Amino acid sequence: MSTKNRVWRQAALAFVLLVSGCISSTDKPAPSASSPKPFASLEHQVQLFLDEGAVAAVQIRWPKGEWSRAYGVRDLETRTPAQPTDRAAVASVTKTVTAVAVLKLVDDNLIGLDDPVNDVIPGFTTSLTPPAPITVRQLLSHTSGMPEVTDALPKDVDFRPVLAQTLTMERGLQLAGTLPWRSDDVGAFKYSNTNYLALGLLIQTLRDKPIVHVLQEEVLGPLGLKNTSLDRIDPHETGILHGYVTLRGELVDTTDNTFLAGNPAGGAISTMADLNLLMAGIFQGRAVSASSLWEMKTSPGFHPYGLGVWEHADGCSEDSRHEGRGGFWDYQTVAVSSADGRYQAAMTVTTPPMPTELEDPSTQDKRDYLNDRIESTLNETLDRICKPAN
């Protein structure tokens, strides 16, 4: 077996599987009589992830049942068994949380969705060179055309110096400002993390509080997300699923989230149970007003994306499901909800350790493919268990 394959096999750490419809959790499966068939495909996919050297956590909720399971170990050093309550970095699912906080600004009449932000967000016109008035809606929907901050980061194969520095919202705008902002990109879908760094500054400015405090008070607390934060974590604390990449063939633990701590575009650490509480709260109408929820689900000119959520077909409804999706080098996460908030599914997979795209550009496609498999697995499982609302 090659050195590369040995690394992948050694990294078969943890897969936490949670399938639920009640607000409870167990680390052993307790399916109903009707559940084995719906979950057989899911368990098969879990085993494929494990065989490939992945680590993951999943929760699926439906109205009358819950199923939870943990697979593997949290990290390669202690090899402590994983638990369904373990936390992991959930990347751009954070954007869904931030989008809720922005829509609450709209609900509170502090700003309108189609109001320009150029003169509202600190540093927006001094750090960046917007070619036109940019609206709140454009930032939420990734249709501002704003340059991607990660494109301005150093491209050294040794990524460790970059990850050791926190990417603040202000620094993110400054870095993005070193790249051209083309006028013909404004109005077209162009996914950019910089949009949500700018939105974080907007929230912070209009609420006159640090973004981390606002998200806790406006979203995480009210929806009951007790195990979710944007704080820096201690990689040595218990209850964390560790992520890894390789650097010139050596395994590197990348669990430390210093780089993204406090980041409204991708800094959340959470559990799958909390992600399902988030999605249930949003789509059951307990997070924002009915008009803001409608806006969130309505795609402004680009079919798969709304305001902070992606869209996916629902096998039991004429409505679409909605998703938060996120990915780092070391974690891939998808959180799904039916439009009425009756069904949720969430999974995070600690990616099999491989080089970053700075060392091997082909690995980005592998990570994207993994994220797509997570999405399809969750939605196929929901299709098997869901029933049309009466």
Q: What is the straight-line distance between the termini?
A: 55 Å
Q: What's the number of helices?
A: 12
Determine the oligomeric state from the structure.
Answer: single chain
Mean pLDDT, to the nearest integer, reads 87
Biggest pleated-sheet summary: 7 strands, mixed
What is the H/E order? Answer: HEHEEEHHHHHHHEEEHHEEEEH
Please list the strands of the largest sheet in the order they lie side by side. Answer: 3-1-2-11-10-9-8
Give a count of the beta strands, DSSP E runs of length 2 or more.
11
Low-confidence stretches: 1-15, 17-35
Strand content: 15-25%
Percent of residues in helices comes to 25-40%
Rg over CA atoms: 20 Å
Word description of this protein:
It is a single chain. The chain is of the alpha+beta class and 390 residues long. Helices cover 33% and strands 15% of the residues. It has a seven-stranded mixed β-sheet with strand order 3-1-2-11-10-9-8, with helices on both faces.
Task: Looking at this protein, list some descriptive labels.
single chain; 390 residues; alpha+beta; two-stranded antiparallel sheet; 33% helix; globular; disordered N terminus
Summed up:
The chain has 390 residues and is of the alpha+beta class. It contains twelve helices and eleven strands.
Q: Which secondary structure elements does this structure contain, and how are they paired or packed?
A:
Layout lengths: L2 H8 L3 E7 L15 H16 L3 E7 L4 E7 L15 E2 L4 H14 L16 H4 L8 H5 L19 H4 L5 H8 L16 H15 L3 H10 L23 E4 L2 E4 L15 E2 L1 H12 L6 H8 L12 E4 L6 E8 L3 E7 L6 E7 L12 H23 L5
Parallel strand pairs: 1-2
Antiparallel strand pairs: 1-3, 2-11, 4-7, 5-6, 8-9, 9-10, 10-11
